[in-house]
Design goal:
By secondary structure, the chain is α/β, with parallel strands linked by helices. It is built from eight helices and twelve strands. It folds into two domains: about 170 residues, Glycosidases (TIM Barrel, Alpha-Beta Barrel); about 110 residues, Immunoglobulin-like, CATH 2.60.40. The longest helix is centred in the middle third of the chain and has 19 residues.
């Protein structure tokens, strides 16, 4: 009754369930037997990714399913992908503190995580302070540590998150179809040895966006991704760009597809994956690229 009243009487409002079980139909409407929430928090994705990124990259290949399992159930509810206040209090560490490794590695890993989160189906939740990598946990009695923005690597993190938001808003492929496989396609899912994945996000019309993630500190040249059609990939953003604090590894301006099958897809392309990074590409089909 609460959800029915709120969503009927106050158009534009949302209700969200912070629910960690597999209780069904949380976001289905009450008239269809559901609880009527607008969204449900995807606690599984949150726990899997944070546990995964706390592991030494050398051993991540044994835990590859933590990167991919979320897509088994991604369309069973309308999900929010939450990295919330609950994860940065009570001795759990800040988001940057949770990442494995030394100082620079932590920043590279957190940038890669944000690139993965923003491209993954589902709405995004990032708690304040995480956008510039605050090191201390959140304390409701204190302001955020804004002075960290005087340090280039923290300012670079904020520039990266700002750019992700802008690209996300301008590309319907990243948000228009969040509730079905019509908006998602695996391009490389089983490369556990390199702890890398790639997938495509699709819109009802217009160019698709490809996201490729590398969760090791090793650069991979010639990383193969499958493609559903012939076309061209153009880099949109890389977490390894120098303005964000990265090493500056870049792809060529236009990467052509090849008539070489990969996985169950007829075509493929070879990209460069910087170490510990997330890279987004715009994919234009051959006809539109001409």
């Amino acid at each position: 009754n609460l959800n029915t009243a709120v969503l009927t009487e106050f158009p534009g409002c949302i209700t969200a369930a912070e629910e960690a079980t597999d209780f069904p139909m949380v976001t289905r409407p009450p008239y269809d037997g559901g609880l009527g929430f607008t969204f449900k928090w995807d606690m599984g994705l949150m726990h899997d990714t944070l546990n995964y990124l706390a592991i030494d990259p050398y051993f991540r290949s044994k835990h590859h399913s933590r990167l991919t399992f979320s897509m088994v159930y991604a369309f069973s509810e309308n999900y929010i992908l939450p990295f919330s206040h609950d994860e940065v209090v009570h001795g759990k560490k800040s988001m940057i503190g949770k990442m494995w490794g030394g100082y620079d590695m932590k920043f590279a890993t957190l940038r890669a995580l944000w690139g993965y989160q923003f491209a993954h189906p589902g709405k995004k939740l990032m708690f304040m302070g995480s956008e510039f990598a605050q090191f201390i946990e959140w304390d409701y009695k204190k302001a955020l540590d804004w002075m960290l923005l005087d340090y280039p690597i923290h300012a670079g993190m904020r520039r990266y998150v700002r750019r992700l938001n802008r690209i996300y808003a301008k590309n319907p492929a990243l948000w228009q179809i969040d509730d079905s496989w019509d908006g998602f396609l695996w391009l490389n899912v089983d490369d556990a040895e390199r702890s890398a994945i790639a997938f495509m996000r699709k819109a009802k019309s217009g160019p698709a966006v490809v996201c490729a993630c590398n969760f090791t500190p090793v650069k991979y040249d010639g990383f193969v991704i499958g493609l559903p059609e012939m076309g061209v990939l153009r880099e949109l953003i890389s977490s390894d760009e120098t303005e964000f604090g990265g090493g500056g590894v870049k792809n060529i301006p236009a990467i052509p597809s090849r008539e070489e099958a990969f996985l169950d897809l007829k075509y493929s392309a070879r990209i460069t994956l910087p170490p510990m990074s997330a890279v987004w590409f715009q994919f234009e089909t051959e006809e539109k690229a001409k």
